[in-house]
Amino acid sequence: MPRPVRLLRHVVLAAACLGAPLGAQTIRPAVTEYPLQARGKFDLVNETLFPMTVVLEPRGFRVDEKGDLADTPFDSANVELKLSAMSFRIPPLASYTVHYEARAKQLPAWFMVLSAMTGARTSSGLNVRIELPHVVYLLQKDALRKEAVAVRGFAYDSAAGKAIVDLENTSASLGRVLASELSSGGKGKIPFGGFPLFPNSKRRVEVPWEGPGTPDKVMLRFANFSVEERRLPMAATTDRP
């Protein structure tokens, strides 16, 4: 019997958070946020010629200071989640919509609905198991404020060819960087996507730089404000911070 091939959960979760393509099976949207409580939906798309069996599982997750993701047990004591289905089949070249409602006793809160999809096979006959997460953020009543976001460091490691940005959220509110960009004196710009900034936490972002010159400005766009930080040319160094 062909052995199953399983995609690592944290790799797929990282892809979802960054908005990266997830292959022949797709979940959309991969990430969403709601104020106070959620009444949402997501679509699972089967782009293969095989029928797919899907089993849903609510899970928690955490993100460390370096941005590494790990899943944790779902916090059912805090989050109440209702799903329109827990398992189903998707015909070939078809899609299925899952509806849900969620609320939390304490905000902010975050979780994911993990969709385990089986039924497809590789060209060599191996069965494939793919886990696609739909990430949900339940936001607090008061939005994250600009004064709570501090850029603690902005350096360029010329030896590694990357910029290092250290951020801190000094408040109890959750916010998300929706878009971000490195630039170099108007000579080049490199976007590097979005990411969550969790309550009372720090976050280090390392971004490869392939543009001309060296990066001297970083821009972070949140839902209601933007944060901009400039780095003096003399701060360029080949030493790691």
Order of helices and strands: EHEEEEEEEEEEEEEEEEEEE
Shape: globular
- Output the CATH homologous superfamily of the largest domain: Immunoglobulins
Task: Compute the CA-based radius of gyration.
Answer: 20 Å
Reported CATH architecture of the largest domain = Sandwich
Broad CATH class of the largest domain:
Mainly Beta
Unreliably modeled segments: 1-23, 234-241
Summarize the structure.
The protein has about 240 residues and is mostly beta strands. The chain contains 1 helix and 20 strands.
Report on this model:
- The chain has one helix spanning 9-18; strands spanning 4-6, 25-28, 31-35, 37-46, 52-63, 69-72, 79-83, 87-90, 94-104, 109-121, 127-139, 149-157, 162-169, 175-177, 179-183, 189-191, 195-197, 201-208, 217-221, 226-230.
- It is globular and about 55 Å long.
- The chain has 241 residues and is mainly beta.
- Helices cover 4% and strands 55% of the residues.
- The strands form five sheets. Strands 1, 3, 5, 6, 8, 10 and 11 form a seven-stranded mixed beta sheet that branches. Strands 2-4-9-7 form a four-stranded antiparallel beta sheet, with no helix packed on it.
- It has two domains: 4-139, Immunoglobulin-like (Sandwich); 146-235, Sandwich (Immunoglobulin-like), CATH 2.60.40.
- Mean pLDDT is 87; it is low at 1-23 and 234-241.
Topology:
Elements: E1 4-6, H1 9-18, E2 25-28, E3 31-35, E4 37-46, E5 52-63, E6 69-72, E7 79-83, E8 87-90, E9 94-104, E10 109-121, E11 127-139, E12 149-157, E13 162-169, E14 175-177, E15 179-183, E16 189-191, E17 195-197, E18 201-208, E19 217-221, E20 226-230
Parallel strand pairs: 1-11, 3-11
Antiparallel strand pairs: 2-4, 4-9, 5-6, 5-8, 5-10, 7-9, 10-11, 12-13, 13-18, 14-17, 15-16, 15-19, 19-20
